Amino acid sequence: MKKASLWILTILMIVSNLSAADFYVSANASGNGNGSLNSPWKLQEAMSSPLALMNPVDTVWIWILEGNYTNNFDSQTSFNCFTNGKPNAPIIFRNYKNQKVVIDGDLPYTIYFAFGNCSYTWLWGLEILNSSTKDRDHSNIDRLGNIACLAENIKFINLIVHDLGSGLDLWKTSKNSESYGCIIYNIGNNLSNNGNWEGHGHGMYLQNDTFGVKNIHDNIIFNAFGYGVKVWQTTTASALGNFDIQRNIVFNSGAPSENLGGVGNNYRTHNFFVVTNGQNNPVKNTVIKHNLTYSGTNTPRPPVNAFGLNFGVKNMTLDSNVLTGQLRMGYNNTPVFDATVQGNTIVAGIPTAYGYYLWGFLEADFIQNTYIPTPLATGLEYFIYPNKYEAGRSHLAVYNWDGDASVAVDISESGLQSGDIFELVNVMDYHNDIITDTLSSSGIIAVNMQDHSFSEVIGSQKNSVSQFPFFGAFVIRKIGETSTTGISEIKNNTQLNIFPNPTSNGYKLSFLIARSGFYDVTLTDIVGKTTLIQRKAYFDTGNQEIQMDPKDLENGIYFIRIEGQQSVFNGKLVLNK
């Protein structure tokens, strides 16, 4: 038993070990099936919540068989979701045995999750696109299709989303929704603005009120016509905040557009755009950590990153990101800028003629960061982010500043073992640019940084923009017999036992760490004020025991988060002295 003493408080989490129910969906279903493998449902049948899916007591798996799925639910929507799971019994739509499942739609909403109609529903491993070849470079018709989520407690896991008019849109009412491990690209269309073609349509468009947390973790987003990740409130009075944005890889935003760019054009493209639209209404309670960006000079307008312009931020953490290109932060010119900005690597990458490298602040304002004012000419840095839902799957980003044709990368942290056969997938040609290899005992692989192929933007005559050999993003995935993480395994990995709770005095927290590592511990009160309890607390593999003492806290409800690369623990404290 490992023991550690921290000035922490409590976590409450309910874990269920109930067995799951299984149903099946086929593109060739008759419409009269019962959801069995031999008599499957149509996809919309399953999404319309047949009797078998109502009031689930166990996790429900809806396995979607290989095929192309099209539908017209109504004149605006291809597929509409009405399933309602429960906190410990979600309804999960997943591709059967990792088969290729394609959901294709040329209506405004490809999949629609209406507020109040569905909840605790997961989409996992599906490919969602608009295959229409309509010209989006020189027409006045916006490209259609998107994933529109207004419902609460919806998860999007390891999806492939591309060539839609808008990408994954998580709107204000979609409380506690999550996007994890998705690959999103070629989103958007062109729009004429005084004779200049500008890119519109974003990889992710995010809104959120200040109730519940929106988790945006481990996604790869590139080649959006507009912005990669846009956090923005369309009204001037509504609250905006409570985002947790971590370990995302974002690059080439604006690359497929006809944006003329140039010094005289003030229209910027952004990899990250986190900005509020309301006077004296800053973005609140937002964590942006361990994200990776790349801004190449070979795009029409090299993408920049913006955080807290116009009306500022309150309680924002911008920590340990790699931010390339121009960085814009509201600071001296905003009403409020309450932020912790530390541990970031800020790298130039666009010509100075486009504007100042740092805008809205000086290096001296935030000294706990690494500033590199000119593009790097030498060095190698890479990042591996293992997938918490699928064992043997990871995302890899490589910064190859030397421009070498091949680089050596140690993928020991990917979860693969010596002798495992794996695929290294270039995300820019996800279905075709794949190298198969066997992991040696050293854990080191050679990653080719040249001669890669790229999927074209459907409906565009523009060539794809490559950042090789200087930057590349990949998926690593084990093939053969895989140990896919099941719901019970996910829950067990985050199970916490607290006694007593509620409490008026000290108490004990015990939990299981599946993989050793460093964890940050934070405490948030009911009004959103966050306190760092411990940064990079190290836990070894195995059972942990933490003694708690709430003597410095007032009575009330508190939320605590213990977060590392492999696991995240969330919950609440009820303190009544």
- Choose one word for the global shape: globular
Number of helices, where a helix is a run of at least 4 consecutive DSSP H or I residues: 2
Report, as a whole number of angstroms, the end-to-end distance: 30 Å
Radius of gyration: 23 Å
Spatial strand arrangement across the major sheet: 2-3-6-9-12-15-20-23-26-29-32
Mean pLDDT: 85
Please report which band the strand proportion falls in: under 5%, 5-15%, 15-25%, 25-35%, 35-45% or over 45%. Answer: 35-45%
Keywords:
disordered N terminus; 3 domains; mainly beta; globular; 577 residues; 2% helix; 2 helices; ten-stranded parallel beta sheet; 41% strand; Immunoglobulin-like; eleven-stranded parallel beta sheet
Condensed summary:
The chain folds into three domains: 2-12 and 485-575, Immunoglobulin-like, CATH 2.60.40; 152-184 and 204-375; 380-478, Immunoglobulin-like. The protein has 577 residues and is mainly β. 2% of the residues lie in helices and 41% in strands.
Please describe what this structure looks like:
- It is a single chain.
- Mean pLDDT is 85; it is low at 1-19, 482-486 and 488-493.
- It is globular and about 65 Å long.
- A hairpin with a 4-residue loop joins strand 45 (517-525) and strand 46 (530-539).
- The protein folds into three domains: 2-12 and 485-575, Immunoglobulin-like; 152-184 and 204-375; 380-478, Immunoglobulin-like (Sandwich), CATH 2.60.40.
- The protein is mainly β.
- An eleven-stranded parallel beta sheet has the order 2-3-6-9-12-15-20-23-26-29-32, with no helix packed on it. Strands 5-8-11-14-19-22-25-28-31-34 form a ten-stranded parallel beta sheet.
- It has two helices and 49 strands.
